[in-house]
Amino acid sequence: MTLPVSAARVRDDTTYRHGNRLRVGVLFVNLGTPQAPTGPALRRYLKEFLSDPRVVEIPKLIWWPILNLIILNTRPKKSAAKYASVWMREGSPLRVYSERQLDLCQSELVRRGLDVEIALAMRYGEPSIDETIQHLVAKGVDRLLVLPLYPQYSASTTATVFDRVFESLATLRNPPALRTIRHFHDHPSYISALASRVRAHWAAHGRGDLLLMSFHGVPRRSLLKGDPYHCECYKTARLLAAELGLPQDKWRVSFQSRFGPAEWLKPYTAEQFEQLPAQGVKKLDVVCPGFVSDCLETLEEISMEGREDFLAAGGEDFQAIACLNDSSEAGVMLADLVQQELAGWPTAGETAEQQADRMVGRDRAFELGAER
């Protein structure tokens, strides 16, 4: 049974002022990233990530010793080396591209005449969801749209973002009105942006024998428990193939990043790299439609390890197609999602008349004894 929030947990609202201009806010949330490609930074990040019961659905009494006594003593150093191989001058690719996408979306919304406050948070690591929501509320946001940057819904990604958002709002004395975007796996703008990315790559590098669409894997038991992620991945793939005009034998779906001994969604991407050359696929194109930004899983696992495995198995040419990243299509796609979901909320900015009315309301509040 869920218990009500204790009054002791509710924060005092120190930012509200009569006459404040109230705004619409948009919160982008991505998975997260370590602060640096080092063992200690990875240990902190992995501890938070792998302690989430939405991510690892194993009883705590069983999982705690595995995580703290084994994984966190072996995995950080190995993961740090992998992160170092893809780290950008500005920082982690996932964070860098997410920040650029925010700027692109903001510019596109301004061009369309929408006046909203956009911020980026990470589910794990920094900036945290809680501190970012506090920042938005301090700026006068009284209506909040939450957009997890995961095209396909999964309890281990989207739902855990919502969990943390709800927990944060539960501590506010005057929380904003809330809307959420659950997924966008079949949104026309998303499919169009993906197709544009693939076409641009083909125009520059030629087309391979097969387009492999690799999605992040999840344990198969999540599908059996009712998680729609598997179905949404296949729908994205089907729509993208149709947009590209690909016949059935020219594209395939697979799932990557398997962790642990349990069965995950199949077919496994790593096995495809080893098997496809023997099936006559010598030139392979790989796209990752479950990631809106390139990150460790695309840049290292696919572009580096995957290339090596495919060529070692007899492949001749391996092309990893970049994610949407900071492309113009990414900005337009995100702006389309935001604009659609903000329908009915005031996003046109404030007129001089509205500002005057706000000041009148402030003055009357002070006349009635308001302190701020």
Radius of gyration: 23 Å
In the CATH hierarchy, what is the class of the domain at 188-320? Alpha Beta
Strand-residue proportion: 5-15%
Distance between the termini: 39 Å
- The helix count comes to 12
Secondary-structure-based class equals alpha/beta
Q: Give the total of beta strands.
A: 8
State the shape. Answer: globular
Describe what you observe in this structure.
- This protein has helices at 39-50, 60-86, 93-111, 129-138, 155-169, 188-205, 220-224, 229-244, 269-275, 296-312, 328-341, 352-367, and strands spanning 23-32, 117-124, 141-148, 177-180, 210-216, 251-256, 283-287, 317-320.
- Strand 7, helix 10 and strand 8 form a beta-alpha-beta unit.
- Helix 1 packs across helix 2, helix 6 packs across helix 8 (229-244) and helix 6 runs antiparallel to helix 11 (328-341).
- The mean pLDDT is 93.
- It has a four-stranded parallel sheet, with helices on both faces.
- It has 372 residues and is an alpha/beta fold.
- It has a domain at 188-320: Rossmann fold.
- The protein is globular.
What order do the helices and strands come in, and which of them pair?
Elements: E1 23-32, H1 39-50, H2 60-86, H3 93-111, E2 117-124, H4 129-138, E3 141-148, H5 155-169, E4 177-180, H6 188-205, E5 210-216, H7 220-224, H8 229-244, E6 251-256, H9 269-275, E7 283-287, H10 296-312, E8 317-320, H11 328-341, H12 352-367
Parallel strand pairs: 1-2, 1-3, 3-4, 5-6, 5-7, 7-8
Helix pairs in contact: 1-2, 3-11, 6-8, 6-11, 9-10
